[in-house]
Amino acid sequence: MDLMQPRLIQRIVDQGLANGDMPLIINTGLLMVGLAAIGVFGGGGCVVFSVLASQGFGADLRSTLFGKVQSLSFGNLDKLETGRLITRLTNDVTQVQELVMMSLRIMVRAPLLMVGSLVMAILTSPTLALLFLLLIPLVTAVIVWIIKKSYPMFSEVQRRLDAVNTVMQENLAGVRVVKAFVREEHEIGRFHGANKQLMDQNITAAQTLALNMPIVMLIMNVGMVAALWLGGVQVKAGGMHVGQVIAFINYLTQTLFSIMMVSMMTMRISRSAASAERIQEVLESQPEVVNKPDALTAFEPQGRVRFEDVTFSYDGADADPVLKNVSFVAEPGQTVALLGATGSGKSSLIHLIPRFYDVTEGRVTIDGVDIRDIDETALRGKIGIALQESVLFSGAIRDNIRYGRPDAPDDEVIAAAKLAQAHDFITSFPDGYDSIVGQRGVNLSGGQKQRIAIARALLTQPTILILDDSTSSVDVETEARLQEALAATRQGDASTSRGLRSPELVRETSNGRRTSLIVAQRISTVLTADKILVLDNGRVVAEGAHADLMETSPIYREIYESQMER
Questions:
Q1: Among 17, 70, 330, 351, which is most exposed with the fewest C-beta within 10 angstroms?
Q2: Is residue 519 part of a domain?
Q3: Are 391 and 470 part of one and the same domain?
């Protein structure tokens, strides 16, 4: 419809006005209005459907990215970092989504309009069309130069946006620490620094893009002046009509304007390409922990955990290992406690059992089966774990406890809470188990969050229970009751725990026992353990029961005396 308008203007000027043919002028004018109306209808439809398509694309891309993040291993997430992932799931997706919308609106219309206008300009005046041989290469050269210059700038913009999101995420997560140490001004300054770097880089990139419009407009106006001058010469010589010159200038304007629209889109592509690469990096990430094609999907272990000369490093075989030649056995029904200084490798060790990471050397087995031969879902379905940081989700306490078993009945939820010594404080809330947990459990104490996390682990009825320093915020008396209740369930008889009956939470293994591995800082937590492993600098330096270690291990004796003889 747009390509028809200049030719109709030519008819009005060369035939209607030149011959004084008013009916022709009126009819042609009405035809132009009709064609314009059709163009408006088509353009409006293009806008509507481009928005629908781009929004659907953005939603699909975000869902795919989120699903990919869920499939990644701990090692992948350690490298990608939270702040960077947030940027990719939000701003980067938005950049690409907007590119899709603009592409559907412009990158189809503009090239067609450019080619059509060029053809019509040649048909209108082959002589004046020679101007395109000069104008189009000039515009193209400008566009290519700006794209090459701006692309790395926008890559840096996204990296600096990562930095802003990281600072913001850390500050919001640790706002209580900030206020406790009166570091608000420091954090404001830290955010201001990252924010200013982002602003400066955005300005630098925008200044480069700002050159595009005036340079292209200059070339366009020079072309129009040249067409008017050359056309005027030919009209004066009788080689062209005035309407032809007007039509040619319109086609020239449409051609160069289309090139300008394409150039604006290429600028947008330059910015979005940086975001697309960052999204692609996540989509192409391969989980470091993967199932074997023939992995066991049905697995009912008795709970014998064995480490066989295990060495582990977070960054592969070339990095310094955090665990070195670790070997031990946890028999079914045993409680194995891990004790050692901060950084000795306790948490790293227990993270290998549910296969959050793969060992660098050696192997970890359950009932003699290498955990790498077991399907991840089947393996983790038999392991209950309360991590060092008690992470709760927004929603009811009841839903947080049944997070690992959404279909668990209420009586089992309550039984798990009782075992974890959480029932009393939960029922003290006005809404009981329906009380809402704030974001990250902000309205609960550290000890309360830990006990809910332990209840969540128990509700899955695990064969192997892992507690990673998960009672550090619980008072000694409550911890003693908790240890007594857990000891009862490990031996297959929950009824001995202060009159508490919860046989529905006792894993029915061949020997009716549950294997427990406990990471602890307090010596009182490990005194009753069947076996205590003392770790130092990634190695097991002592192993045995409390009485044996008091005689044979200077490190254990030093830890005991430092805590118990205060």
A1: 70
A2: yes
A3: yes
